[in-house]
Task: structure prediction
Amino acid sequence: MATLSDDDVRHIAKLCRLNLSDKEVQKFAPELNDILTYIEKLQEVDTSSVEPTPQPTGIVNRFREDEIVSDGPTPEELLGTSPLPIIDHQIQTPSAHG
Amino acid sequence: MGKPCALTIAEAHSKLKNKEITSVQLVQSCIDRIESIDDALNAVIYRNFKRALEQAKKIDAEGKFDHPLTGIPFLAKDNFCEKGIPSTGCSNVLRDKEYVPPFESTSTQRLKDAGAISLGKTNTDEFTMGASTETSCYGVTRNPWDTTRVAGGSSGGSAAGVGSDECIFAVGSDTGGSIRQPAGFCGCVGFRATYGRTSRFGVMSMASSLDSIGPICKTVEDTAIVMNTLAGLDPLDATTGDLPVPDYTKAISGDVKGLKIGIPKEYFIDGMDPEVESAVRSAATHLESMGAEIIDISLPHTDYAVATYYVITPSEVSSNMARYDGIRYGHTVQKADDLVDYYHQVRTEGFGDEVKRRIMIGTYALSAGYYDAYYRQAQKVRTLIIKDFEEAYKKVDIVLTPTYPTPAFTVGALDGDPIAMYLQDIFLVAQGLSGMPGITVPCGFCKNNLPIGLHLSGPHWSEELLLKVAHIYEKSTEWAEKRPNL
Result:
């Protein structure tokens, strides 16, 4: 599989919402490539007739009644942990449009 | 009598019940211990002493010690949310604004309902990502047996705390070895329950399809006591199993006659410490002399386990870390051009390098064009790893291995070598991937006095059998009695 170039690393970082300085790109690129080289060994395993395992104990679709549970934290308590200003029970974030 | 902080749960409970000590004395003894030695260890990163003493006073005044955990002080790993108590996952992204959760994790709630007393929070690798507690924003936790060495990780603070008698027991979380490796490094008993046997609610997620909550204790009996309280269905965690919870303390007696113990050839590798190998093989011989049958087995996909783990875990990490965006909690910045710039700044400043590495690997592995080759392929190899164990458990009852190939390493020894750090959990990731339980108990010491861990694992929901064999082994050897000189 492909080796990541410095520009690939910058692109991945952007998808992750992370800023990387040029110096950090120099540091992370070889580390990420080493990890990718290591995990490459999975390609040698024949999995053509194998199903993937997303959950190891096989529990699926646990249903419950659609009831309002009121013993959790209050809206005020949950909003209280935000570092941003609260206006009318809403968090004021920086603009999405710049 | 030694100091109360050195007691096990069972011993402390008996003394509390017989009014030989008070809960306040027990809590104060742990506080004194933390204050006298924790500068050298850095295991406890938040001290909740005032509330702990108030709670102990209340419990003493009531004077009812029917439950074995009533009045017993414990420490919780910093990724457990405790209502009203700073809980940061040892990450700057939550530490900077000191996140104080408005809710309580099910596990700590169950312990508190039983009367156990929270003493504080323990150090961990940032959001549990590491095997040495070196990626914590609070700095490394040192090993009570040799403070130039790491306590292991990610539950390094919980393990060092229990290993040095700073508390009576602790709780941690294990994704690919994060309870068992540090417990082994620090000479403790560490138990990873079956995925879904304990509740993950209120514990900061790392890799949601692997994370499991469990105790770190001084003895196997104590582990059984804590598991009686931690185990069970939780409506707040849909992945918990709806199975009855047995009394684990009743399961630990008996003998090992006729027990079939498998030893996988793939777990005795080149580069393994000869003292570790010899101690683990002696432990097998010891169990054989007590009537168990030792059977050589093979787990052919062992060599792929760490690679599988390091695709699936970062993928789930990249998703779970998306919540740290500086909106609902955590780090913030004063000036941002727009929302996307805000996200970038908050996350760049808040996360450490290992978290960034895993988010980037995971994002790459899940991206269009690479998903099938990486993530889906890893989920398929995961199936093969599980099948290896299922085949093995047709022939044997449990699998016996070392907990790690080499004992606790020196602080900084693996700096700049992420893969060497990942390989620390080479013998432990299979339980994370398969969701099967595993326990580590001390089985000897190296010449330089570092503890060696014996690891026993079994099929899904085999907690009772593992605790029983571990208890029988522990009771017939003297390793659990040895304590570090601090």
